[in-house]
Amino acid sequence: MNAPSSNQRILVGVSGGIAAYKAVVLVRRLIEAGCEVRVVMTEAATRFVAPLTFQAVSGHPVRTTLLDAEAESGMDHIALARWADAVVVAPASADLMARLANGLADDLLTTLCLATDAPVHLAPAMNRQMWAHPATQANHARLIEHGVTLLGPAAGAQACGETGEGRMLEPDAIVDALLANDQQDLAGRHVVVTAAGTREPIDPVRFIANRSSGRMGFALADDAARRGAVVTLVAGPSTLPTPARVERIDVETAQQMQTAVESIGVTDIFVGAAAVADFRLAAPVDHKLKKSGETLSLELVPNPDIIRGVAERSGRPFVIGFAAETDHVREYAAAKRVAKGMDLICANEVGPGKGFDRPDNALLLLWEGGERELAQADKRHLAGEIFDTYHQITQDRDDASS
Q1: Distance between CA atoms of residues 22 and 15, nearest Å
Q2: Which tops the pLDDT comparison, 197 or 349?
Q3: Does the residue 1 lie in any domain?
Q4: C-alpha–C-alpha distance, residues 322 and 386, integer Å
Q5: pLDDT given for residue 1 in this prediction
Q6: Which CATH number characterizes residue 373's domain?
Q7: Which of 379 and 74 is assigned the larger pLDDT?
Q8: How far apart, in whole angstroms, are the C-alpha atoms of residue 280 and residue 260?
Q9: Which of 96, 169, 310, 376 could form a disulfide with 15 if both were Cys (CB 3.0 to 4.6 A apart)?
Q10: Single residue among 182, 207, 225 that ends a domain in this structure
Q11: Longest Cα–Cα distance in the chain
């Protein structure tokens, strides 16, 4: 955990789920970071962990009931909502997400989430199929539209015996995300992020594409916004929800992405996380190609090199790029960084089960005179590490020039 110390007042909500035991560690970690913590539990959560446990760890009584005559003598739930600097619900069950997405306030925890003007964060935890269900994803998108920040979920083994996306983020990662706003270390900077893949049309129904999900780019945009930056996200086709406080420009082709990037004004940091197609058809056809039983030849021409174009600008920004390689990762990435004029390149090995279309990854970061290996982790965590490395590089440059 690398979160800074804090004197924030954090309201931790705990909903029903086996991951409720992790919330005990979360409360302890927040207190160790200097936060004052109060805990509110749903009735279902009390069946997994006793309120007395949270009371012992936090040092304060735990609230579980909205209509508690003694506690509510002074409209205590409103006072509690006003007390908090931030609210985090961990774990956040599918049921709790659905109720909040629809504005329901039928227990103490959901009432507090609606009554507070503090930032609300949810750390989802559920079976992978529940997380992937269209209803949950729709609630996910609606919550983000309402200004709620979602932390996770992560991927991995689940209590049900299955493996996939739906695990609650580990407590240390949640603390890092909650207290990152204390830093605001990108305040006043304009960060432009490209994300997802591009589609190059062959005919009206077919296109050339790749396996990029856009998760890394969206995570970088989200982390930059949390750190106080003004963020513009230029996204290829993706169903991922737009992070809070991020301006999004949707594009489809590499040429459209280049045009969008060039139309953006002064940029302090440019992050080229999109998997841009290297080639496009010389002449896409305006009608569906019919199968004839014969071979088909397509003439391809190079697409614009968006990152190189940004790096060659007068008054260029700090340029961060990515390299996805199947072999010789270090050598190819180092050469690519120099050839394209990047300040920092983030390289990873791709192939079956690696890199693309996954919630986690491992990265090798390379810059002039330095390198850093990031172990397999959730892409949201990696995004934070990348911006931490940016600060390290710029600080080293400042020290060298002073």
Answers
A1: 12
A2: 197
A3: no
A4: 11
A5: 38
A6: 3.40.50.10300
A7: 379
A8: 18
A9: 96
A10: 182
A11: 81
Written as six digits, the tokens of 353 are 């089960």
pLDDT at position 378: 79
Burial class (CB in 10 A: 0-12, 13-18, 19+), 350: buried
Query: What is the phi/psi pair of residue 106, to 5°?
Result: -105, 10
Q: Are 42 and 109 in contact (CB under 8 A)?
A: yes
Q: Is 268 part of a structural domain of the chain? A: yes
Looking up residue 136, the CATH number of its domain turns out to be 3.40.50.1950
Catalytic site positions: 160
Output 353 or 380, whichever has higher pLDDT. 380
Containing structural domain, residue 215 = 184-401
- The answer to whether residues 280 and 295 belong to one domain is yes
Co-location of 216 and 356 in the same domain: yes
State the pairing for strand pair 344-349/318-325: parallel
pLDDT over 90 (residue 365):
yes
Task: Inform me whether the pLDDT recorded for 402 exceeds 80.
Answer: no
Q: Between residues 192 and 245, which one has the greater pLDDT? A: 192
Query: How does residue 29 score in pLDDT terms, banded at 50, 70 and 90?
Result: very high
- Rounded to whole angstroms, the Cα distance separating 33 from 87 reads 16
- Nearest 5°: the CA angle 92, 136, 205 is 145
Q: Return the bridge partners of 40, or none.
A: 13, 63
